[in-house]
């Protein structure tokens, strides 16, 4: 298999047009300031910012918590089923433009149920958008219910129970929010319940937290993918295990930059992880807050780390392999990728 080297412009065009799966994106993190202001006005919610520009100017984060404080405040404008639908539909239009063919997306019900919004309101709006995305845009999308790790295990279990009447509308559970001080073990019973219900399991681990959190996400929670996982680089035994067992990492480079996990993108370890044979994928995390959707993550990471077309193809194949879809769908996506490579003269 020879992979001709492409010019920088050709590489950008290749990566942008390439079919890909997005496996780490919080739908609340796709709420753009313009829509946030429109929903605030519609629902009579007062935002502590005078304008869209003032809000964007506040997106200057020093760590994960400094982001989460603003992110949860922004989510307060979401109140009706239509609000959730509109937010998700806006994401799907952007995903289509970035040639995303498959998306497994997080939602944070506790952020909304704590304000009196029902589980049904949330999931029905999101699900309507994902059904429409499949019918009109050809994007297959699935939902993953995330537990907020700064809250208790009892609250996580109650959230999953509230979701039971809608279990046909989400495929799995995840774990997000403030990582440090909230190790995966705290949620062992909630994840065991999810396993018994036949749900897939993922968890944020090793974003700010130590490699031990990644071990526990795998061994205690049964996580099948690790969201972020960049701190695995500090543990060679873990790196070998991730590579050997093909446990995928859903890496989000622009998020890591904006939340000061890395000082510059040139310092990002994504290239080293790929070289170590780990099933890395590139994702956007909270694109409305971190400066770009999935293609922008590809473009900036490829430029900073001097990655090539071979890396691009590996990242796309990893995204399909690590998804929770059927083998038939994976074969369909890989065939789309083959066709894309062929028309680009890359074999
Ligand atoms: N919720 C939304 N984005 C998150 C992130 N990057 N880490 C943890 N929780 C999140
Ligand atoms: Zn995330």
- Characterize the biggest β-sheet: 8 strands, parallel
Give the strand tally. 8
Give a list of the ligands.
Answer: adenine, zinc ion
Q: Identify the CATH class.
A: Alpha Beta
From the alpha carbons, calculate the radius of gyration and give it in angstroms: 19 Å
Give the oligomeric state: single chain
Provide the spatial order of strands within the biggest beta sheet: 1-2-3-4-5-6-7-8
Morphology: globular
> Can you tell me the CATH superfamily?
Metal-dependent hydrolases
Describe the fold and architecture.
The protein contains 17 helices and 8 strands. It has an 8-stranded parallel beta sheet with strand order 1-2-3-4-5-6-7-8, with helices on both faces. The mean pLDDT is 97. Adenine binds next to helix 4.
Task: Describe the SSE topology.
Elements: H1 8-17, E1 20-22, H2 33-43, H3 52-57, H4 64-74, H5 81-97, E2 100-107, H6 109-113, H7 119-137, E3 140-148, H8 153-163, E4 172-176, H9 188-196, E5 200-205, H10 211-219, E6 225-228, H11 236-244, E7 248-251, H12 253-258, H13 270-275, E8 280-282, H14 287-290, H15 294-305, H16 309-321, H17 327-343
Parallel strand pairs: 1-2, 2-3, 3-4, 4-5, 5-6, 6-7, 7-8
The structure holds adenine and zinc ion (ZN).
Looking at this protein, list some descriptive labels.
single chain, 347 residues, alpha/beta, binds adenine, binds zinc ion
